[in-house]
Amino acid sequence: MTTRTATGPVRIESRWARPLQVGRYLLLFAFACFFLMPVYVLVVTALKDPVQVSVSRMWELPQSLSLNGFREVWPKLRPGLVNSVLLAVPVSIISSVLGAANGFVLSKWRFPGADIVFPLILFGMFIPYQAILIPMVRTMRDLGMQGGLDGLILVHVIYGLPITTLIFRSYFAGISDELIDAAKVDGAGMLRTLAYVALPIAPPAFAVAMIWQFTSSWNDFLFGVMLTSKENWPVTVALNNIAGGQQVPFHEVMASGLLACLPTLLVYVVLGRFFMRGLMAGALKG
Amino acid sequence: MNAPLPGTRPQAANIPLQRARPEATGIRLEQVSKRFRGGVLAVDRVDLDVRPGEFVVLVGPSGCGKSTLLRMIAGLEAVSGGRIWLGDQDVTSRLPQERDVAMVFQSYALYPRMTVRRNLGFGLRMRHTGRPERNRRVAEVAEVLGLEHLLDRRPAALSGGQRQRVAMGRAIVREPKAFLMDEPLSNLDAKLRVSMRAQLSRLHQRLGTTTVYVTHDQVEAMTLGQRVAVLRDGVLQQCDTPQHLFRHPVNLFVAAFIGSPSMNFVAASVSGGAAHFADLRVPLPAGSSLATADRQVILGIRPTGFGVAESNGWPTLRAVPDVVEELGDERNLIIDINAPRVDTDATRAAVAARTADDALLLPEEKARFTVRVPGDHPVSIGEPLDLAVNPERLYFFDPETGQTLR
């Protein structure tokens, strides 16, 4: 380009940089389309009129927008959604708080044997649901906690502890020991060091742990169906009942699927901003 | 500090902090040892008596156990042996929160989610001091340290020097029995460090609180400490006033560690009441125990132990400066000496611990001396000159044990 003046911004790049960049974006776009196909079908089918829904024409856009699917499915889904909220919110809060306490004593307020206790806690992550299903159901029945949401909450809290402990232990391991030492010398014991010094800098870990716990307890089907009675079924069981009839009403299934995944999306959006870095800024020298 | 510079706030010097202090408390270490789980002996039977109100500096190369010793006084590390006394109380097995000492950390360790005000008041809050009293003391300390305008900021919004002052204030506000400081100035730039050093001295004079201060910088140790304790490999070498440490080091390590530039060493022999090295015969000082000896020694001379050759009878050394370092008022000359170089564990440990100001780029078999001469004395590289050795300022060390021979 002869018109470019010497004072303008000049980029230093290989002459293949532009074509390569275009190619890269095309490739990424193709991947994105591929991965978004199910989402496309989900949204498009949910908005179709019942008469337009058929497997052969699933890729077509709806001729007219219809919210019939949502309207029909809402009464069936609502109790499940309420139950799932009543389940997932306490589960994510309780298991995060307990995980924070665990992670704190395993990394910053160590006790003799911490190196043995931690791997033992981690084992819990690798136990498949199916392996403990029968003993769990019997235990809960003996405890008289079968049928209600309280038992399901307890089970999910316990099952979530290994992962939340791991998250908080790793997070606290990254903060300076001197900060904890300073609190000790300033006169704080274990609980007050946790409450006043460790927890205030832990929101990023809370965001990760709560997103994780909310999503996994929300998406769980097996424990829900085994441990709760009909009126306490979480949304996953309700979803299964809609999809599992004699004739599958696809637009209703897709609409309820959309509704059921909205809360988890919301949690990602709300908690995601606590992922921001720099919460530790200024504590230490640099 | 005279008149405050425009734009700076009045700091420690200007505002009296007068309070009828209770009796200052001493710290006594009796045979304190620390063995870590891997078996490393970090501190080996240290005895140290810090008098009430005294400023004692622990100094030594990194890994010498000085920080471990400080953390044991704070209660952050358990002792493996020995006892620690705070005043007349045996605190050896007390928790840190029960010891009533305050600590300033190298990283400052400010609580990141608290404002400066809450950082300062945290120790008082944890000790259940009432809010009015807490606010009064925080305000007072903030004024002394020039932090009033920063009280509502978080640590992230402070400069390094300001953070350092908050860390200091957090210790002062508690009015503890003792201050423990773990290299508190090492994260400041050189200029700020010097000014904070002076302020620390002044603050200590005013508060009169017993202070134990850890540093690896012997200049900081010498300028701050009323007494300086030199540690090496967990063993206390010598604890004395800076002057005495400089003039009468007990061994080769202390001699090499204290003083800048560090002492020159050369292998020499003693016989007939004089020391011999590099064709030079230097009479021993009067009353030396080596007067009748006939043996090998390591001879030490400080860079300032030389004078310009005059007719004062001092033996003179003809030398050719290799390097001339201009310092303004003074010059450092580096000269080759025709005698074997001294390379012992002690001198190496001492030199490695310091800024590499006198490390040799080209290790040689021959000794090299650093000589400090007045700035007005004409010298140039490659031009021979006569240096007089002051016989009163020679040090002799046993080549085997490193102990000073007097």
What does this structure look like?
The complex is a heterodimer of chains A (286) and B (406). Chain A has 286 residues and is mostly helical. Chain A folds into 2 domains: 2-46; 68-285, MetI-like fold (Orthogonal Bundle). Chain A is 67% helix and 0% strand. Chain A has 11 helices and no strands. Chain A has helices at 17-46, 68-107, 114-123, 129-142, 149-173, 177-185, 190-198, 203-219, 222-227, 235-243, 250-272. In chain A, 35% of the residues are buried. Chain B is α+β, with helices and mostly antiparallel strands and 406 residues long. Chain B is 23% helix and 31% strand. Chain B has 9 helices and 22 strands. In chain B, the strands form 5 sheets. Chain B has a 6-stranded mixed sheet with strand order 6-7-8-3-9-10, with helices on both faces. Residues 1-20 and 355-362 of chain B have low confidence and may be disordered. Chain A binds chain B through residues 176, 178-179, 181-189, 192, 196-197, 200-201, 278-285, and chain B through 71, 74-76, 95-97, 101-103, 105-114, 122-123, 126-127, 154-158, 160, 163, 170, 174, 180, 187.
Short description:
Chain A is an all-alpha fold. Chain A is 67% helix and 0% strand. Chain A is flat.
How many strands, what sense, and barrel or not for the largest sheet of chain B?
Answer: 6 strands, mixed
Estimate what percentage of residues of chain B fall within beta strands: 25-35%
The end-to-end distance of chain B, rounded to whole angstroms, is 42 Å
Which strand order spans the largest sheet of chain B, edge to edge or round the barrel? 6-7-8-3-9-10
Number of helices of chain A: 11
Rg for CA atoms of chain A: 25 Å
Number of domains of chain A: 2
Structural class of chain B: alpha+beta
Q: Low-confidence stretches of chain B at least 5 residues in length (pLDDT < 50)?
A: 1-20, 355-362
Q: Look at the helices and sheets of chain A and give the structural class.
A: mainly alpha
Which segments of chain A are poorly predicted (pLDDT under 50) over 5 or more consecutive residues?
277-286
Strand runs of chain B, count: 22
Q: Which two chains share the most extensive interface?
A: A-B, 25 and 35 residues
CATH class bucket of the largest domain in chain A: Mainly Alpha
Amino-to-carboxy terminus distance of chain A: 46 Å
- Proportion of residues in β-strands of chain A: under 5%
Task: Kindly identify the CATH topology of the largest domain in chain A.
Answer: MetI-like fold
